[in-house]
């Protein structure tokens, strides 16, 4: 008896159309954080599928072919101005009770 062999039609391995962040970073040879910086700076376009952030294969190829020499650093947050601390003492007078001079935001102790 002859054994019949099955022939399976295997498709050649092709690259995916969309990469997740981890896969795109691996293909690009950079860290996920560096990829996040590129996405935040809008140097790499993304597509959202539900909650997942996906990167097109063509976008990875575009980035690889570009002469992009800008450093991969996070955006600098604007510095907030420090509020000046009041150092002047204030005196509170309530009829019948006198409080001595005290700095602001400190608990008052009545003087007798």
Set down the secondary structure blueprint.
Blueprint: E1 18-20, H1 21-28, H2 32-40, E2 47-49, E3 52-56, H3 57-65, E4 93-94, E5 97-99, E6 110-111
Structural notes for this entry:
6% of the residues are buried. The chain has a domain at 18-65. Helix 1 (21-28) crosses helix 2 (32-40). The strands form two sheets. It has a three-stranded antiparallel sheet. It is built from three helices and six strands, in the order βααββαβββ. Helices cover 23% and strands 16% of the residues. It is an alpha+beta fold and 112 residues long. The protein has helices at 21-28, 32-40, 57-65, and strands at residues 18-20, 47-49, 52-56, 93-94, 97-99, 110-111.
Low-confidence stretches: none
Question: What is the succession of H and E elements?
Answer: EHHEEHEEE
How are the strands of the biggest sheet laid out side by side?
1-3-2
User: Helix share of residues?
Assistant: 10-25%
